[in-house]
Amino acid sequence: MTTLDSERTQVTSTPTAGPWRTAWRDLRRNKVAMGSLVVLVLVILVCIAAPLYASAIAHTDAFTSNVNGTITINGQTISVLETSSEGLGLGVNPIGPTWTNQYFLGADNQGRDVAARILYGGRNSLVIGFTSALLCCFLAGIVGIVSGFFGKGVDAVLSRGLDVLWAFPVYLLAICLSIVLINSTIAVGPVRLTSGSLWLPILIIGIIYVPYVARPVRGQVISLREREFVQAAIGSGAPDLRLLRREILPNVLPTLIVFLPLMTAINMLTEAALSFLSIGVQPPDASWGTIVNDGVGLLYTRPWVAIAPGIMLAITAVALNLLGDGVRESLDPKAKLRGAA
Amino acid sequence: MWRFAGKRALAAVLVLFAISVLVFLIFFATPGSDPAARIAGRNASQETLDQVRASFGFDRPIWIQYGLMMRHLFIDRDLTSFVNRGAQVIPQVTQAIPVTLSLVFGAALIWVLLALVMGVWATAARGTAIDPIILILGVIGVSLPVFWLGEVVNLITQSRLHDSIFAWVPPLGYVPLSDGVGPWALHLLFPWLTLAVLYAGIYARVLRSEMVQSMNEDYVRMARAKGIGETRVLLRHSLRTSLISVVTLFGLDFGALIGGAALLTEVVFGLQGVGKLTYDSLTNFDLPVILACVLYASFFVVFANFLVDLLYAWLDPRVRSV
User: Fold this and answer.
1) What's the pTM?
2) Residue B225: Cβ-neighbour burial (10 angstroms; 0-12, 13-18, 19+)
3) ipTM entry
4) Contact between A89 and A109 (Cβ < 8 Å)
5) Which of A33-42, A229-238, A316-325, B34-43 is predicted with the least confidence, judged by mean pLDDT?
6) Chain A residues with CB inside 8 Å of B296's CB?
7) Out of B33, B206, B260, whose CB is closest to A184?
8) Is the dihedral of CA B79, B84, B85, B87 positive or negative?
9) Is B229 exposed, middle or buried (0-12, 13-18, 19+ CB in 10 A)?
């Protein structure tokens, strides 16, 4: 499988069109991928506009509870939270979807505007998903390249480390790390992570998936090393650093880029799962996972609180996966489908 | 072959050992994590903390604590919980196993059948609109957050349509197989379907890409040249060889799920399986149970990897020298 990956780079088309440009041209012709990209950009723009939505349209603060608030719809004054004995709503029955500016999707059990929270939460979900995917690909690139290039002892140590991470069930590792770290303040040298920092889920999720990316990269580097152009460069006395920079890295980079959208989708789903279990993003911050969790207690009375963030997450993940497929087809057409995560 | 198998087995045992050390270190040596403080509760006085430390043996060197715990788990087999003191850990795990096995077996059956139908259909229909539709359905399947899907299924079957179409759906929970196959399957039907949605699509995609690739292989062309019908070529020649990669994938996923990777499904549907037990032990910070659960889970992952490695080595002798 890995020997095939590198063959692409040998096929240089016309001197004017480099491999990156060719790939971009292919991607632009891919309707599904372009459609996904448009959806993705829309989701991102809408989430960026969260403060605008909260202040100009919903007239609310998505982070402070509004237990005694009232709103006026069609001349009628309705309180945001009503005490009730029915359902699982912890004794309160928040207002349902009004489908108007204020409380478009209703309120959660603290009287906060769910629609506004979903937009704010989307920012965190997107930031965590993308940053951790970037971190994961970066770390996996380093580990895979170093391990594949230097071989021997270095490879043995790194590969065994990957084996252990690989054999540790992903969700369990994420949950173990989250439970231990999420409520404590970590100070490593000058870096200080307070509890509730978004960097905790980013670091945890970024690290747990490293073997999934590092293994194929390592395999690719090992087979690259045997190829003529690398052997020729070694024979001509090129130093290691130059070999890595000029011969290996340009050939591994497409693989890492192919992984980026796919890992972002997986990471966003993982973040949502951790937040759903209350060990991801910490209150009062929100993410799509925490809002689904907020909605579980209101599931049978106010289902939109749980449904809406899940729909947003699913749309984003579908778009990322389809975009990822497109990127793979244009950059790395011979790469095999990855298994289920 | 035996040499290779022995080497891989040794590596597997070492990996399991490393994981047990890793879990132990995560909970005992992470900065900011103090098990005694967790057990004693918030605002515990210094005396209480000291008492807890002495009583649970946290004041002893860390490798002795590790050794004692492993001895109780594997040799004496009488490891007890930190939270419910006196409660044995191993029976808790063995009680949870049938629940997880029931969930995973049923779901696996559904998703494999679904994936076979979808994959073969997509291959047969390539070039038409059906092929991309099936593939996109698969992408949607892997993109749905499973816990959310489970909650939506609960909403529909337990509340919104419970008075009409889904009146036959029993309340959440698990009924053992000994109470009859009917009630057992009925309680697990929606958890099965929810879990299967996650995997069916990706398996169909893998199967389709393998089958499309095999369509250009010599043996398929040969079969066609002999005048064998297209359906028979698809099912007997292309599908058979394409199943190898699906079986590999299945081994790894199945191993992980048996070990408790279906945690979210179990939590959402209130099934007291291994995943739920692990999650509860993690939230209670019940280290002995955590250790037992994580080792149990990683055992299946490592074992599945080991089997897949052996299978490959058996199929392809070149692998053995690596």
Assistant:
1) 0.86
2) exposed
3) 0.85
4) yes
5) B34-43
6) none
7) B33
8) negative
9) exposed
Does the pLDDT of residue A218 top 60, yes or no? yes
Residue A7: predicted pLDDT = 47
Mutate to test the interface with A, among B123, B137, B148 (most CBs of A within 10 A): B148
DSSP A55-102: IIIS-S-TTS--TT-EEEETTEEEESEEE-SSTTSTTEEE-----SST
- Cβ A193 vs Cβ A239: under 8 Å: no
| First and final C-alpha spacing in chain A | 19
Q: How confident is the model at residue A173 (pLDDT cuts 50, 70, 90)?
A: confident
The reply to whether residue B252 touches residue A322, judged by beta carbons under 8 angstroms, is no
Q: Which of B151, B203, B261 sits opposite A169 (nearest CB)?
A: B261
In this prediction, residue A15 has a pLDDT band, given cuts at 50, 70 and 90, of: low
CB proximity list for B182: less than 8 A, separation 6 or greater:
none
Residue A72 confidence (pLDDT) above 80 = no
Whether residue A310 has pLDDT greater than 90: yes
For B148, nearest residue in chain A (alpha carbons): A310
Which amino acid is present at B241?
Answer: T
From B286, B300, B297, select the one nearest B88 (Cα to Cα). Answer: B286
Distance from C-alpha of B6 to C-alpha of B310, rounded to nearest angstrom: 10
Sign of CA dihedral B113, B115, B120, B121: positive
Nearest CA in chain B to A299: B155
Closest CA to B158 of B142, B150, B169: B169
Long-range contacts of A187-195 (CB under 8 A, 24+ apart): A187/B31, A188/B31, A195/A282
pLDDT digits (tens, 9 = 90+) for B41-96: 667 777 887 877 777 777 777 788 888 888 888 888 788 887 777 788 888 888 99
Give B227 to chain A, closest Cα distance, Å. Answer: 31
B296 touches chain A (CB under 8 A): no
Q: Decide if B13 touches A, using CB distance below 8 A.
A: no
Cβ–Cβ < 8 Å for B291, B69: yes
pLDDT band at A272 (very low <50, low <70, confident <90, very high): very high
b/e code A262-286 from CB counts within 10 Å (16+ = b): bbbbbbbbbbbbbbbbbbbbbeebb
User: Among all chains, which residue has been given the structure tokens 């995973």?
Assistant: B104
- Neighbouring CB atoms inside 10 A of A122's CB total 25
What is the rounded average pLDDT of the residues A124-146?
Answer: 94
DSSP string, A137-168: HHHHHHHHHHHHHH-HHHHHHHHHHHHHHHHS
Shortest Cα distance, chain A CAs vs residue B304, angstroms: 10
Provide the mean pLDDT of chain A. 82
The Cα–Cα gap between A304 and A283 comes to 20
**Helix and strand counts by DSSP (H, E) for chain B:** 14, 0
What's residue A86's pLDDT?
55
Instruction: Categorize the per-residue pLDDT at A245 as very low, low, confident or very high, splitting at 50, 70 and 90.
Output: confident
With a pLDDT cut of 70, the percent of chain A lying above it is: 85
List of chain B residues with pLDDT < 70: 30-33, 41-42, 316-322
Residue in the block written with tokens 């793979």: A328
Peptide bond into A284 cis (omega under 30): yes
Minimum-distance CB partner of A164 among B15, B26, B33? B15
C-alpha angle with apex B140: B139 to B141, nearest 5 degrees?
Answer: 90
Return all residues near B191 (Cβ < 8 A) that are at least 6 apart. Answer: B103, B107, B150, B265, B266, B269, B271
